[in-house]
Fold this protein.
Amino acid sequence: MENTLQIFGTRAIIEAIEAEKEIDKVFLQIGVSNPLSSELNTLIKKNSINVSYVPVEKLNRLTSKNHQGAVATISPITYQDLEAVVETSISKEHPPLFIILDHLSDVRNFGAIIRTAECTGVAGIIIPKKGGAPLNGVAVKTSAGAAFNIPIVKVDHIKDAIYHLQGSGIKVIAATEKTENTLYDIPLNEPVAIVMGREDSGVSPGVLKIVDHKAKLPLLGTIASLNVSVACGAFLYEAVRQRR
């Protein structure tokens, strides 16, 4: 939890949620049951907040404070609205370029992708509310501060975000080895969104079914895959090359 803003205690977390703070994740102690914890659980479900139920030892590692069985992390940024970001991007002179992160798990990969995305003029990064790497202090540090300079959008469902992009005239391309097409076969000088998958399993099957194109990077060595942040950089800079 290095460099992450924390709040601890059931009442404090309830107040933060009611004040509409950007809660990134809540950790709750397994087996705690009282009226206040029930109220917190209700708020978490109502607001679709990412939550993990963990042993008390995990909470003790997160903080040395009197946590009362509840610790939350607050995002260092304010997340943007998908429709507003898309509308703004398509009104500009240059065709928009988006990144969709399909349940990326490593915060340093997340930060590295944010940094490259900012350097390549990406209009926005779309991430799921649940199941992805948190935008914590480590991710922000790895991004070299780029997280404060690029719109980041949290959505309930990646597939719904893809449908919205497609309905707005933005083609969606999945970075996957499950295709014969290479990155260099795909036009990237038009409005596009590139989907990068989870480190261990890649883009999810449900997402692969609805994208407009699939593309892979040619691998000439014996290792079967690249680090996801490196692969994302290759895709983004091919887009830059084609748009020059």
Q: What stands out?
A: The two ends are 40 Å apart (CA to CA).
